[in-house]
Here is the input.
Amino acid sequence: MSKYIVKRVLLAIATLFLVCLITFFAMNAVPGGPFNSEKAKSPAVMEVLNERFHLNEPVGVQFWIYMKNILHGDFGVSLTTGRDIWNTIWSSFQVSAKIGGMAIIVALIFGVILGCTAALNRNKWPDHVIIFFVTLFTAMPSFVMGSFLLLIFCIQLRWVPVWTTAHPSYVLPVIALSLPPMAYITRLTKTSMLDALGQDYVRTAKAKGVKPRKVIFIHTLRNALIPVITYVGPLTASILTGSLVVERIFTISGLGSKFVDSITKRDYTMIMGTTIFLATLMVVMNLVSDILYKVVDPRIKLE
Here is the structure.
């Protein structure tokens, strides 16, 4: 286990370095810059700004300076607002994490329940109804769902208030973020449950007279959850990164909104800081999900 974790950590470091390298050079390859605005600045001001943020240096030198600062824990300041990057990312992430955490819990709970229900009622009307809505939610992206929910429940029916900083309403953003992963978890759970129900140990348990409830929850569901756990790691990161457009739709001041604004304004330091943060989150959650395999099923060997 320890050797596996060390190997994965080294691989994660290499992955993060490649993410930084590709993002930095791709970002600088796009024409324009963070100080190119409608209100033109004088050449003297542009020269001072470029020198202050090392934008007058070759791209390779800029990357070396940036990576050296990152290794010292310095993410820099925003090129457009002058605020500290790490403080901005952390404060915005707390908002996104609260919405994303609730969406993950909703998706897991309802996905597992609906998947088990569909598997235990295979080819019956509950199965057909669940699969119909699962297919619908899978085909509808979260930003489309968010726009639909906002139009119906906020504007037309006025059942749910529009998000404001003073009075945040988490209902519609959580629903919009949780429905697509919930649909995938439902399909994953159903497939795994059907496979587990056909295994010899389940038939043996039924032949011995074990109670059906115990067969389902102890013998079947535990093994059926392994593929779901595989999906939880990437799901956690994908919900947070996938909330970019949803946060814009509901005017939520989260990490997604900051990331979109930084791309629009060509805020290099904010783009790099957000990318590194989200990439680190993805790598860590993948490692955690791999370790959870071993907890759920001790037969799995991590090498």
Observations:
- The longest helix spans residues 85-120.
- The chain has twelve helices and no strands.
- The radius of gyration is 24 Å.
